[in-house]
């Protein structure tokens, strides 16, 4: 799920030049997006990325951290999602890629470069890389477990192997154009996405209540 930032997650447009404090932006977080992001992450099945033309990535990251911190997710669940960084501080950078205009990334693929298409493609590359890392880690853990059972008693060897949760690599759905959804207030970005075979919904900033009904039409 790829989300725009200005006039989408936020109810204002920062123009990529916000000069106020991060705290001053918190009241502008749209409740519908706060709920959408936290619900998606809590399912362990929906990946989230933010795609924006803003260059103020630290502002975007601060907003995402705030959403998770105040989104009603229990602290233990936040830790389970891998959203707690150093000193117990919420840190969404390990879970939610951000692609903006800060020149911190580059897309060299053969896909479309119109609108938010390169942003989404680059975010998918990061998510797929993370998946590969987690898959390798799970293989290592499984191998270590299997090797350890060889030296245990017969009774302990009958213990079941570690269970695989719904968020394990074996249950991941490949990220493709057809499994990606862009939510954006800019008609042009929506049209570029649709032309490229990506699902997309135009978000009407004046009618945020229409978002979830529009999303349900895709189910």
Structure description:
This protein has one domain (2-106, 122-144, 167-216): Rossmann fold. The protein starts with a strand and ends with a helix. Residues 149-166 have low confidence and may be disordered. It has a five-stranded parallel β-sheet, sandwiched between helices. Strand 4, helix 8 and strand 5 (199-202) form a beta-alpha-beta unit. The chain has helices at 5-9, 22-25, 31-42, 57-69, 75-80, 117-149, 154-157, 187-195, 211-216; strands at residues 2-3, 49-51, 98-99, 181-184, 199-202. By secondary structure, it is an alpha/beta fold.
Question: Features of this protein?
Answer:
219 residues; alpha/beta; Rossmann fold; five-stranded parallel sheet; 5 strands; 42% helix; 7% strand; globular
User: If helices are DSSP runs of H or I spanning 4 or more residues, what is the number of helices?
Assistant: 9
| N- and C-termini, Cα separation | 14 Å
For the record, what CATH class applies? Alpha Beta
Largest sheet: 5 strands, parallel
Number of domains: 1
How are the elements arranged and paired?
Blueprint: E1 2-3, H1 5-9, H2 22-25, H3 31-42, E2 49-51, H4 57-69, H5 75-80, E3 98-99, H6 117-149, H7 154-157, E4 181-184, H8 187-195, E5 199-202, H9 211-216
Parallel strand pairs: 1-2, 1-4, 2-3, 4-5
